Amino acid sequence: LSRPEDARREIEDVLQKDSNDPSALAMLAELHARRGNELDAARVWERLARVAREGRGEHALRAARILADAKETERVLGLISGDTVADAPGEWAQLVLTAFRESDAEVFAAAVDRLAASAGLPAPDLARLRNVATRRLLATADTSAALRRAREVAEAQPDDPEAQLQLLLAEYKTRGMGTPRDAEDVVARLNELSPRVATEQLEVHTFLLAEALDVIMGGGAGMRELSARHAEIGARPLIALGMGERLCRARSFDTALPLLRIALDGDLMGLRSRSRLALTASEAALQLVRAEED
After folding, report:
1. ∠ CA 20-21-25, rounded to 5°
2. How many Å apart are CA 244 and CA 238, to the nearest integer?
3. For residues 185 and 211, is the Cβ–Cβ distance under 8 A?
4. Are 94 and 117 in contact (CB under 8 A)?
């Protein structure tokens, strides 16, 4: 391929005789890539992924990387199959995380489902992708889709504490903590998960436990749980949220306001409307001003 025009003519001659000749198509894709025509190269590699007997996974992956950069997510989805993923499942998992980072949460979930159906992806990688998909849906306003997804993933990954916590989060987001009996069930499930909860999931675990304890016991039980965890791991967003809300109800606005600001700057996992929480923080600030004036 050192003389591009001559090479192109030779390739076209071959393809006129056999439009699916793998060697000619591979040379054509490389020619497009060398000339900077990345999308043309991707189109040929897509075709190779369909017609070639060997190397389909490599062809599909090369096409998918270009298409991901071009935000052509639907075409990336079309390249995910058992035949293409099997040779490099880890690379496909990373590609999906990258390509669909800015996509709609349901589109990302569809890509993860396509990977899961293709088989070959190591269980830890698949679990991680499924949990990311659930977390993204939890951050949306579609509570029914998030709950449905969380149930599916929790059923598929019964020993995964993050999946089980996300199911509890989805249930809480859908119906609140419910009755005292419902809250007791939540506490039992949280206690069962407790020894296996990763450090990064402690704030979720603690937030839910505090909400449940308040329903069952009241009398500041939730605040005591949050305060103990705050002393252990600091003011993570959900810890700050739980404490800030309770301090506002207790009219301790001077202590509540810094915590509400921490919560606003962090990931609320869709549990509270950011605009509503900002209003709560503004009201707390206003109450402080009034107290100083008095």
Report:
1. 85
2. 10
3. no
4. no
Condensed to tens digits (0 to 9), the pLDDT of residues 156-210 reads: 999 999 999 999 999 999 999 999 999 999 999 999 999 999 999 999 999 999 9
Count other Cβ atoms within 10 Å, centred on residue 161: 17
Tell me the torsion sign for CA atoms 262, 242, 142, 131: positive
Which residue, among 256, 225, 251, has the nearest Cα to 240 in the 3D structure?
256
Q: Report pTM.
A: 0.83
Q: CA-CA distances (angstroms) from residue 187 to 116, 190, 196, 248?
A: 32, 5, 15, 25
Residue 228 CB partners (closer than 8 Å, separation 6+): none
Q: In this structure, what is the dihedral angle of CA atoms 90, 94, 100, 105, given to the nearest 10 degrees?
A: 70
Q: Please state the separation of Cα 48 from the chain's center in Å.
A: 31
Q: How far is CA 273 from CA 74, 93, 135, 263, in A?
A: 31, 31, 16, 11
CA distance 45 to 68: 14
Answer whether residue 9 shows pLDDT above 80.
Answer: no
Residue-wise DSSP of 15-61:
HHH-TT-HHHHHHHHHHHHHTT-HHHHHHHHHHHHHH-SS-HHHHHH
| Residue whose token pair is 């980072």 | 101
- Cβ–Cβ under 8 Å, residues 256 and 247: yes
Report the C-alpha gap between 43 and 45 in whole angstroms.
6
Residue 194's H or E segment, with its range, is none
Q: Are 42 and 67 a contacting pair, CB within 8 Å?
A: yes
